[in-house]
Amino acid sequence: MARSTSLLYLDGVSVSFDGFKALNELSLTIAPGEMRAIIGPNGAGKTTMMDVITGKTQPDSGEIYFNGAVDLTGEDEASIAELGIGRKFQKPTVFESHTIWDNLELALKAPRGPFSTLFHVITGAEKKRIEVLLDLIRLGGKRNELAANLSHGQKQWLEIGMLLAQDPKLLLVDEPAAGMTDAETAETAELLKDIAKDHSVVVVEHDMVFVRSLGVKVTVLHEGSVLAEGSLDHVSADERVVEVYLGR
Amino acid sequence: MMSSFLFRAMDARAGIFMAILGAAIVLVPAGNLLVPETSPFHVPTYAVTLMGKYLTYALLALAVDLVWGYCGILSLGHAAFFALGGYAMGMYLMRQIGTRGVYGDPILPDFMVFLNWQELPWYWYGFDMFWFAALMVVLVPGLLAFIFGWFAFRSRVTGVYLSIITQALTYALLLAFFRNDMGFGGNNGLTDFKDLLGFDIQADTTRAGLFAASGLALVVCFLICRALTRSKLGKVLVAVRDAESRTRFLGYRVEHYKLFVWTLSAMMAGIAGALYVPQVGIINPGEFAPANSIEVVIWVAIGGRGTLVGAVIGAVLVNFAKTWFTAALPEIWLFALGGLFVFVTLFLPKGIVGTFSQGWTALRQRKISAAYEAGSDEPPTAPPHSPGAPANVTIPKPSAPVSGAAEPQPAE
Fold first, then answer.
1. What is the four-CA torsion angle of B389, B392, B393, B399, rounded to 10 degrees?
2. Sign of the torsion formed by the C-alpha atoms of A157, A162, A165 and A167
3. In angstroms, what is the C-alpha Rg of chain A?
4. 8 Å CB contact between A194 and A173
5. Of residues B235, B236, B402, nearest to A138 (C-beta)
6. Nearest CA of chain A to the CA of B397: how many Å?
7. Mean pLDDT value of segment A140-169
8. How many Å apart are CA A163 and CA B37, to the nearest integer?
9. Closest chain B residue to A93 measured between Cα atoms?
10. What is residue B79's predicted lDDT score, i.e. its pLDDT?
């Protein structure tokens, strides 16, 4: 796909840490509105890829474009988040000493400068948006509880809710089903499919059952570059993918 | 609604605090000036000054609590800003001495005459005017904090590394101010003050006025801190404290937030120093000593980090204890302070105020659930709501209808 029509465009991106190549000439394109699952064994570079896209790590070489035209290399986390890329961490990271409501309010799309937050008064529209999100992530009854008191699965959901509150164009979701029960995993897949209706989503996941239930195009990473791409059935029929997953 | 009730309750707590402080501002000077000396309610002048000093310490503690308690910046160098504010005030007071000094020079302070200086250094210009000195009291610490913070926060220096460089900052200033060539009186500092805005600095009325001014400054800064920490900005600060990188990924420029509170806090520390100097009558480089800054952190920890009120209570209590101990049992004071810190860290990790409100919340919880059993409509699930409320209170939760099955799991 051409750069100009893509939402996210990575070309020849390499990152190395002390000589170890975490990403090796990685090229990947996400179309607007697409949902993509990224799988790969440990150390394949999935999280590093997320770090590079969100500005946490700077690539050694290669180019990254967002929305076809915006160069992301050299931008920091805050400005990339402002551009419309939201990220959910592998380990659920919510603000534990804030209530569920406050967590969502902080994530809500609004001016981010110190002076605008100092004089910020919550509007009716913002309250409504938070209510909608609370319903979506099913934490409405716990709105005034501290996030620290949530279960692991609920924290994952809250973080997804915070991601949505940012109203990003692209969501990067790192292992959303990690540490969840089977029932929660199935519900999370439903939630993500819901979200994918009006957002572009990139999901990194280990759990094959989960990836299957998403039913989307899959990219397999291995040693920092793309090994195979296609439907899950297509990639799992690939000899090399089987080899990588089962060991040689 | 429950939350709005709790908000009002918090307001009441602040209200009680303000009322006590307000009463002190009126009663202590009145007890000194209006009550005859023979009356048991008479407040001696030395006590007024002592309490005024405590109030300036309380303001310094408040400034530290703002950056440490809410934004997680552990400053071990706040005494530097306090001392700079103090020096700015001291320079004004020196210029007020005029010909009443030992050498009688109308322009030059005594120590400059002693050093055979012929004219006033340029940085002493303007300090004969109170408004200029007052401006410098906030500007100099503010500017230093801004420059220091700009580099430190932009380079993402955090945690213990930041604490160490704040120590280095205050130590560097200590060494610099010790030098006679700096033009701040070297080892002896600035002293022998005569009057402030035309009032005799030794007079009872001036002392009472300084006490009231310290109390008023504390009230105003407390209100500013409270408004700040309860705004959305305050929530962002707590978010930075608890999960800095998450806050960045939400699109907040963490360094701007840190720089903002850091600079504001330094200005408050400067005001505290400026009120401190005329009450104790001297400012010397000893105020920059690294141990002083560490002591402030101990006051805040004892009172309760991230509570504002706690910082004030901690500062007043510890200093009161210090005054008593250093008079009664001077050799064990440092042991007592160290022991107190260890005790608080081990048994009251939330400080006095934090522990108190935790107990209060637990008590409320018990009351509500008892009332619920007796047939009230309010279910016993009300959570602690304030940012100062302890995060480690365990509340019995009814299992959520949908996804309550999962137990909290250790993070990866």
1. 120
2. negative
3. 18
4. no
5. B402
6. 9
7. 87
8. 67
9. B246
10. 94
B154 to chain A, any CB pair closer than 8 A? The answer is no
pLDDT attached to residue A247: 62
State whether A97 and B238 contact (CB < 8 Å): yes
Interatomic CA distance for residues A199 and A216, integer angstroms? 14
HSE on the CB side for B261, CA within 13 Å? Answer: 35
Q: Using 50, 70 and 90 to split pLDDT, how confident is the model at A206?
A: confident
Cβ neighbours around A71 below 10 Å, total: 10
Question: A17 or A246: whose pLDDT is higher?
Answer: A17
Q: What is the pLDDT of residue B75?
A: 93
**Residue pairs spanning A and B at CB distance below 8 A:** 141
Inter-chain residue contact B242 with A144, CB threshold 8 Å: no
Looking at the partner chain, which of A144, A151, A162 has a beta carbon nearest the beta carbon of B408?
Answer: A151
Can you tell me the distance from the alpha carbon of A108 to that of A99, in angstroms, rounded to the nearest whole number? Answer: 14
Q: How far off is chain A from B65, nearest CA to CA, in Å?
A: 17
B3 Cβ under 8 Å from any chain A Cβ: yes
Check CB contact of B406 with chain A, cutoff 8 Å: yes
Answer whether B50's CB lies under 8 Å from B292's CB: no
Query: How far is Cα A144 from Cα A141, in angstroms, rounded to an integer?
Result: 8
Sort out which chain B residues have CB atoms less than 8 A from A145's CB and list them: 383, 395, 397
B:263-282 residues touching chain A, CB 8 A cutoff: none
Q: CB-CB: which of A78, A118, A178 is closest to B248? A: A78
A186 in helix, strand or coil?
A: helix
Q: Which residue has the higher pLDDT, A3 or B220?
A: B220
Using an 8 Å Cβ cutoff, are B200 and A56 in contact? Answer: no
In chain A, residues with a C-beta closer than 8 Å to the C-beta of B246 are 89, 93-95
What is the CA angle B96-B276-B129, rounded to 5? 30
Q: Tokens 């009145």 — which residue? A: B30
CA–CA separation, B247 vs B241, rounded Å?
9
Closest Cα of chain A to B353: distance in Å? 17
Query: Which residues of chain B carry a pLDDT beneath 70?
Result: 1-11, 375-412
End-to-end, the C-alpha distance of chain A in Å comes to 33
Give every CB contact of residue B172 below 8 A, 6+ residues apart in sequence. Answer: none
Q: CA-CA distance, A157 to A143, in Å (whole number)?
A: 13
Find out whether A88 and A176 touch, Cβ atoms under 8 Å. Answer: yes
What Rg value do the Cα atoms of chain B yield, rounded? 24
Per-residue model confidence as pLDDT tens digits over B66-104: 999 999 999 999 999 999 999 999 999 998 888 888 888
The DSSP element (H or E) to which B278 belongs, if any, is helix B254-280
* B408 interfacial to chain A (CB closer than 8 Å): yes
Domains of chain B by residue range:
64-199+239-358
Judged by CB atoms closer than 8 Å, whether chains meet at B400 and A90 is answered as no
Residue B305 exposed, middle or buried by CB count within 10 Å (0-12, 13-18, 19+): buried
Burial class, B173, CB count within 10 angstroms (exposed 0-12 / middle 13-18 / buried 19+): buried
- CA atoms of A226 and B32, how far apart (whole Å): 81
> What residues of A are in contact with residue B153 (Cβ under 8 Å)?
none
Residue to substitute from B241, B249, B265, interface A, most A β-carbons within 10 A: B249
